[in-house]
Write a structure and sequence with these properties.
Structural class: alpha+beta
Number of domains: 1
Number of strands: 8
Shape: globular
Helix content: 10-25%
Radius of gyration: 14 Å
Largest sheet: 8 strands, mixed, barrel
Distance between the termini: 27 Å
Strand content: 35-45%
């Protein structure tokens, strides 16, 4: 399976933003709910407890992303699989943190201090077109923080 990387570069009060890359190419900017420092928890029970208190982003880690049918969107969407304590995680369109309960939104707008993204639907279509073969076969998604990449 091929690798895509989501690197978090900003945290706001109710969001976190990142970049999504494949082979060094920028596929889009991401927006999620705040992570509530869930990345510092390693037990599924603790993750589920934190998630029950606050709608939050998924923990840092390595996951499989594969196309699957979404009853909510009534179409095939990229699914992020095997996220501890989470179910039904998608990469889908949306512009603000309130547009997600834990999924990854993809779009444009890398401006720091802005808790929103733009052109989400178009960016998702481009992502799905570019990665269609890989999404059918399955991709590896690595979620990290930009601070982890600074040497």
């Amino acid at each position: 399976m091929e690798l895509i990387t989501l690197t978090i570069f900003e945290r706001g009060n109710n969001y976190r933003k990142g970049t999504l890359h494949y082979n060094g190419e920028l596929l889009g900017y991401t927006l999620e709910r705040a992570d509530a420092f869930i990345h510092k928890v390693d037990k599924v029970v603790e993750i589920e407890w934190m998630k029950s208190k606050v709608k939050c982003a998924i923990p840092y880690g390595t996951y499989t992303v594969k196309n699957g049918y979404s009853p909510k969107f009534k179409m095939t969407m990229p699914h992020v699989l095997d996220v501890p304590g989470f179910e039904g995680i998608l990469i889908h369109p949306g512009n603000e943190p309130r547009d997600t309960e834990g999924c990854i939104l993809i779009g444009e707008n890398h401006e720091t201090g802005k808790g929103w993204i733009t052109n989400s639907a178009v960016t998702l279509i481009k992502f799905r077109e570019k990665m269609s073969k890989q999404l059918d076969e399955g991709l590896v998604l690595l979620i990290t923080d930009i601070k982890d990449e600074i040497v």
